Amino acid sequence: MKKICVLGGGAIGSCVSASLTDAGLDVILVDQWADHINKIRLDGLTVATKEGKKNTKVSAYHMSDLAKLQPQFDFIFMAVKAYDTQWVSKFASVYLKHEGVFVGLQNAYNDDLNADMVGRENVIGAVVELSCEIFNPGFVQRNTVPSGTWFAVGELSGEITPRLKEVQKIMLNVGKCDLTDNIYGAKWTKLIANSMTCPFSSLNLKNWEAVKLPGMFDFSVGVGRESFKVGKALGYMIEPLFGLTNEDIGNAGEDAAELVMKKMVKDVGPNARTHAAQDHVKGRRSEIEFINGRVSREGQKLGISTPYNDAVVEIAKMTHSGKIDLDPSNINILFKKLEELIKD
Fold first, then answer.
1. What's the rounded Cα separation, in Å, for the pair 139 and 117?
2. What is the pTM of this model?
3. How far is CA 187 from the centre of its chain?
4. Considering 164, 181, 198, which residue would you say is the last residue of a domain?
5. What is the extent of the structural domain holding 328?
6. What is the pLDDT of residues 76-131, one digit of tens each?
7. How many domains does the chain have?
């Protein structure tokens, strides 16, 4: 049986490891959060969904354990924040078989960075639509059940290979999983969708609550259109994610980004908060600089103005620094910042 490591035991990694363990695969979960690993070892990993709670006896290890165990994995699925990409993927490279496969289950645009650390020939890209939250050791709230969870996986070369199909087979134990010959386009399409929900992160609201605030939906559409424009200039073709079709995307025209965001918000359900909102609640650094910030940086290189994304990045900085507390009234600061940037 092939050996699998899920590297990163946050909400995504925990859900994936529980599902793969339940499927009878040879999998271990590895993380640096000591309390979480110790809790799983003692009591198992509990995943709660709208269908109920399930406790799974996941094999869990501290990162420091691997130096003694010296395992060699056929597959490593890395589920860490974008800002941890390079050091964790370099750590993973030591424990990946020469012909092993490395898959980044991440937001943002990290596959080339992973390739630099692990080897381009070993990396497969992935897009993730799995809403889940973790605030306490050993317990995950999974907002999208397996039937509502969606992945896409693709070779960086665009080829459909036997190993890609093998990764798909593994991930089908977690949710739906499509193959794509356009992983860079798929990743940018997901980045567009994420960029449109990141403005919610400082409001201390769930997605459905935030999007109903006056002016918020239009602001998010403005963010998405900038992200779409920058991606198009970079040569990325928008990919029909989350079960959408090419026809859906084609019929939407300039509103394709809006369509993708609406589908994602609907799929993740009423209890979901954006990944960045969860980070802010925990007092942690968010990935906004790698999502909206990526759009801003690429736009600047291309000479494309991105005031909506710039405003989101600025508000995230204010949140990180403690200048503003999480509150729905921050929407006014966001709108004011946009006005300032447009005037400049």
1. 31
2. 0.90
3. 10
4. 181
5. 186-343
6. 999 999 999 999 999 999 999 999 999 999 999 999 999 999 999 999 999 998 98
7. 2
